[in-house]
Amino acid sequence: MKHILFREHEVENIRELDVYVNNAGYAGLKKALGMTPDEVINTVKASGLRGRGGAGFPTGVKWSFIPKNEPVKYVAVNADESEPGTFKDRQIMENNPHQLIEGALICAYAIQAKAVYIYLRGEFWDLATQLDQCIEEARKAGYLGQNILGSTYSCEVYTHLGAGAYICGEESALLNSLEGKLGQPRVRPPFPAQKGGGLYGEPTVVNNVETLANVPFILYEGPEAFRAFGTEKSPGTKVFCVSGNVVKPGNYELPLGITFRELIYDHAGGIPDGRGIKGILPSGASGPIVPATDEVLDTPLTYEDMDKIGTVLGSASVIVLDDSIDIAWAASKMAKFFKHESCGKCTPCREGTYWIDKVLDRIITGDGAPSDVDLILNVAKNMQGVTLCALGDFAANPIIATIKHFPDEFKRYVDPALKQEKKAVAAPKRAGGAAQGRAGRGTEKTGLVPAGD
Amino acid sequence: MVKIYIDDREYDVPAGMNLVDAAKWHADNDIPVFCYHPKMEPVGMCRMCLVQQGAIEKDRATGEVVLDEHGQPKVRWMPKLQTACTQRVTDGMVIRTNTAEVDQARQNVIEFLLTSHPLDCPICDKGGECPLQNLTMEHGPGMSRMQFQDKQHLDKHVPLGDLIYLDEERCIQCARCVRFQDELVGDDVLAFHERGRRLQIITNSNPGFDTYFSGNTTDICPVGALTTADFRFGARPWELTEVPSIDPFDAAGSNISLSIRLDRDFGGKAMIKRVMPRQNESVNEIWISDKARFGHHFTRSENRAQSPMIRNANGQLMQTTWEEALKSVASILKAAGKDVAAIAGSQMSNEDLWALREVMSAVGSTRLGAWPITHAGADLVAQVGVGVGSNLGDLGKGDAVLIIASDLEEEVPIWRLRLKLAKERGVFLAVANARHTRMEDFATACLRYDYGMAAHFLSNLRAENPDLAQQLAQANNLIILTGAEGLSLDGSRALMQAAANFLIETGHVGKPNNGLLSTFPGPNGMGQYYMGFTPENTQDIMINPPKVLIVAQADLYHDDPSASQWVHEVETVINLTLFADETLSHEAHTILPIQSFAERDGTFTNGERRVQRFYTAQGPIADALPAWQVLSRLGEKLGRGKAKLSAATVMADIAKNVPAFAGVTYKEISNVKRQFPDVGGRDLYYGGTAYQNRGGLGVQLKTTAESGEAINTAPVELVNAPRSQAGQMLIVPTTVLYNRERTFLPSALMHPRVMMPYAEINSADAAKLGIKSGDVVEIVADTMRVRVKAHVNGGAPEGSIVLPRHLTTEAVPMTMTLGRVSKVD
């Protein structure tokens, strides 16, 4: 299959500016500069491109929200890539950086922004250095800066490193962090696209790296070429980050609409040692887990079909859990992640993540009561839908979905009848690691640890 | 106005009003909040204010209201609960605050908050007046599902600075304190550190929590996380009685509440345990400076004068009775004929000053001096001061304020706070001075002139700064706020006249929010003027000392380096004083101990000419009496009729005799009305623990300009300021808020915040004199000789030394003078 994003598979050294340019690089930008900004937005709308950061919001529609009469506008590129199990943007920026820069510039032109800020997670410092070099080369070649490609349009591109927080992948927290403030979400409205809501209060488009990297193709090849991939409601390709219990974990750029079964068995090489699959996390820690039933395995990976099985496509960071994985332990790992990453702004999320983690620790060390499972379920539900950003809901998902689909996995820790046997196994673990709340990495389990640990 | 529906009842409310405010003010519906505060922008963090929100559905084509099957307007409800604090009311908004879902959401938030909150209410300062306690009782689940051992334990005694302690366990991360410092004060010294449950308040200034307004954060803290070093563990709120009072330190006249309790540490007498703000939206809103809050200790100083004393034939001061003392003073006054003068300080109440004037009338003297003699022109404020109904909080777009010759943050911090906010509402704020002051950080325009040239600057404004002049002249409302920095008394008068002329010429007099304001020292600078006491008279007294001088609450020796010279020429000094150990005591023939503002009642007239009442709060010190009572009894002995029995009857006398006070009564001064936002009372959760005003909002005196009289400009008598010359430099005395004045020094907890004596020297001068920052220098001028540390920090213009008053134990000049500076090896 031809790649839209991972073009390094077809073109060696596409990361080099001259190679990129010789392979239709910056041709999309050139074409866009010959169009009106509205025409560019309409082209992207026609492609049906949806945001790849997780929410799947139509990109062209998002751009069209930017008010025309405001003099100062910005583009913020979300390169925070903080969802556990997500590692797609890194590969795009490493191997095909100019396509991101080009996509961001097309977006900037479409909304007539003065500057593009690429917000990278702090750990991407080496990548930021590399991107800075690419930006410099592109500037020298006239693709950005003053009078881009001889036009009247000028735009600067800057990189900015975060300081290491999951929440800064949330768009309004990202903007706060970019402004040098504490990474906490903002009250919306005003939304980033509105006056008062964006970067420094100016209307701002915040797009994911993968989203923008699709844009040059859409401009150059046309929206129909893009729609040749994927489904009606989810056109294009998507990078699936496959990890967990698979033989060949990694990034797979595939048309939207392939099934879990195809992704896991045809592309990722299936499950090691021929084991069965217990559950799938389709979107890192934040999307609800689904049990690996035939129905689920044959569900097409699209925004609309994921909804039908009670989960989300999100950033498509697919974590596969085979039948050796203790789901309660996995839930605990995710609870710890969210406890660590809650920004602390909203009461339910700040307190709920802490509380759930405490009770879950108690459960998996064998000290929990049957009512503790109901307790964390109730606490998780009380966190849902009452916080400023989606993190409150995300943090509730690992609890609610795991208990819903795998009640027995919790029951065996708390049911007095089943507990005796369990406690015998759990006891040595408590002595070792329970103090740090790391119990559950069992001897009988595989050594595989979900990302985010 | 728009129509909204709250719990199925209809209300008309102003469009765009915050929903929490609208529900409270118009519907008497308390939507519980922790992070929201009516004085700050909403942040929607605590999630306590969740309500069910919908809107009346209208047909898109016709705009008609869509009706349901019962003929009722159809409501489109939002799928999730919404935070009320982040909503502004719009027409057709429908809110439910009484559904099971809302109840459950409130209960959940309380439960979440309590999972991390310690159960130390029995030892918490906030216990008894705690929003979290109250809202837990009202909305909480009643029991906890959190196991006690799961609670997080954190540091409970973190000093954020010298004045405020943080209890990290109690903090519920509402950010009210952070936002207060950032949004309202502009001293961005608090911040959040870390994230999640580790989120904590930190200070990022050095020294910690460096601001003049820190105490206010303890009022708005919805839990006991922030407490003051002054009050923490001092008393339980329910033991305290709130007594309305007035900030005794500056011209703003901030309304305060003295929390008193009968206390073992004060001989079982009523004692001030803390000072709290009292809401007066026209004066100080719900804020007070840290000086007002923590500066009350002087009232219980061990140096307070205890009993009347008379010097005997051997020159020794002997304790005596009031009757003996007053008899003696009366005979001294009678014997002096008319050769008597009086100098009264600006902490004297209107009643004290009137009673003193009566005594002076009895002996036939009109030599009434005001102390200190820094600011002239109070008569001009009486003429063209800001009009009745003025409120700095009403200024906005299209209005202008000029601050000239003042370091406002140091002189009147509450005005600085309110004008900073006015600027943010769109006021054109110009700051003119010979040096950088803090106010410039908030100004629209900053202007410089040379020291001594403020009046020249303002007189020539049209010619030399036409743009600024036009901005000011064209403003809808214009206030000129003057100080007296770098001016002689005559220079100060010239500046006031220049300001008055500009206001008159541009039509900015005789109406609210227009006119002249000045940073008269002390709480009753305007009262001094209305009762006939002027600094010009004082100057005359200093030049021609009388035979007998009555000094009332004026710290001559600490304020004036030349005092020792001219006071010596007075034959007999009668001293009405708070403190027994004043240097003046060595000179005084009679010492009459008087009561401070805290121990009796009375009124002050603030810089906006608002007559405000303070009430008896603290128990008396030994034999000390209110000055008006001492003087009224003295007046009786001098044949001025029966002594007055209450301050209120003195006010009745004032109202009869002082035209501006016509009709003013204690009753009228004590009137209150409902103020927005509705803080205090039971509703601690909403605005914090600032108190409702039960003591009175005061009465603003009419200016002459408002009484229909024609107001004319007068020539400005410009004074040529001394210029630095061969070897001599301009010594510019300035005001700093935290100093070593007699009324502030006893507040020991403030000592770490009082600067060591220093003077600011320009780097060019410092280089010439071989002075480095930190060197000790000696400054000599006229009768003054002080040693201070040199600060070479860009604070002083070339040729001048900025020398703060009252940091040194020796007096520094009251007004600008020439002097010499040398390095001390």
Give an overview in words.
The complex is a heterodimer of chains A (453) and B (825). With 453 residues, chain A is of the alpha/beta class. Chain A has three domains: 7-227, NADH-ubiquinone oxidoreductase 51kDa subunit (Rossmann fold, 3-Layer(aba) Sandwich); 237-322, Roll (Ubiquitin-like (UB roll)), CATH 3.10.20; 327-446, de novo design (two linked rop proteins). Chain A is 44% helix and 11% strand. Chain A has helices at residues 17-22, 27-33, 37-47, 59-64, 88-95, 97-111, 125-140, 171-178, 209-221, 223-227, 260-267, 294-297, 303-308, 327-341, 347-364, 370-383, 391-405, 407-414, 416-433, and strands spanning 74-79, 115-120, 156-161, 204-208, 237-244, 250-255, 277-281, 290-291, 317-322. In chain A, strand 5 (237-244) and strand 6 form a beta hairpin. Chain A starts with 16 loop residues before the first helix and ends in a 20-residue tail after the last helix. Residues 424-453 of chain A have low confidence and may be disordered. Chain B folds into five domains: 2-109, Ubiquitin-like (UB roll) (Roll), CATH 3.10.20; 115-228, Alpha-Beta Plaits (2-Layer Sandwich); 309-375 and 526-700, Rossmann fold (3-Layer(aba) Sandwich); 378-520, Dimethylsulfoxide Reductase, domain 2, CATH 3.40.228; 729-823, Barwin-like endoglucanases, CATH 2.40.40. Helices cover 25% and strands 20% of the residues of chain B. In chain B, helix 8 crosses helix 21.
